[in-house]
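Problem 3 from the worked examples.
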Amino acid sequence: MKAEKERLESLAREKGHADKLKAKISDMNASIASKETEYQEAKKLYEALARSNRKFEEGATKFREIYIRVENLEKDKQKYQEELAELRPNVEETDGTPHILRPSFGALIFLITLRHRRTIGRAYQKLQCSYCRTKECPTSPGG
């Protein structure tokens, strides 16, 4: 009987220990589930931030390219204005359109200058228009 009592006490202790382990396992499983949920939320946030950063970098690159193009066009414009200022004293201005003027050195300079101005103007308008289509800007209609 004494042996039976000791065996029952031993079994009761083992059952208590097993119950503690089951409770600990249950707590650990709940902790793992909450950590997985937290991980998934952090992963979604990271992916959204990564997409946002890529879009920002693309926009910054495009802006940098446009800025360099505009800067080059402004340099060209300045160069052509300086050339025009140098050549203008040597050119006799006449009334009329370029195709009516008789072919002469002055008319040729005028035509070249006019062509360069139009080219620069068109390029500048294209840059403005492409910018206005992608972003709101003060120069766009309704922008």
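Problem 4, a separate protein:
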Amino acid sequence: MQAYPNFIDALNKKALSLIRLQRYDKALEKLDVAISMDNNNSIAYNLKGLALMNSNRHSEALSAFDKSIEIDSRYLAPLKNKGIVSMRIQKYNEAIDNFNNALQINPIDRFAFDAKNTAMRLLS
């Protein structure tokens, strides 16, 4: 059972606001607290990956997205974010796989469809 769900949700929302303000280190601090309170928080791991990705800490971002997916394999955001990181590090086959996984969950996801096509174009 999750401890203090409202507080954890507030930490996630605060972290998202900090990410939008490009204050990634502060966001990571909030997310580490949220994760320490509930290590099955797929949203916090996805947000942590987002902050790490935007800090160009790609390897760590991929690990955070993997943890988010491990917790909730049907959560689209970390699948698409993992695809974005894969594209940034020019691993286009991996990006395509991630976008395909997202499209298996939601076949009409426009972002995943367009990003997959971009990765395929960059691969050739």
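Solution to problem 4. The chain has a mean pLDDT of 95. The CA atoms of residues 31 and 44 lie 6 Å apart.
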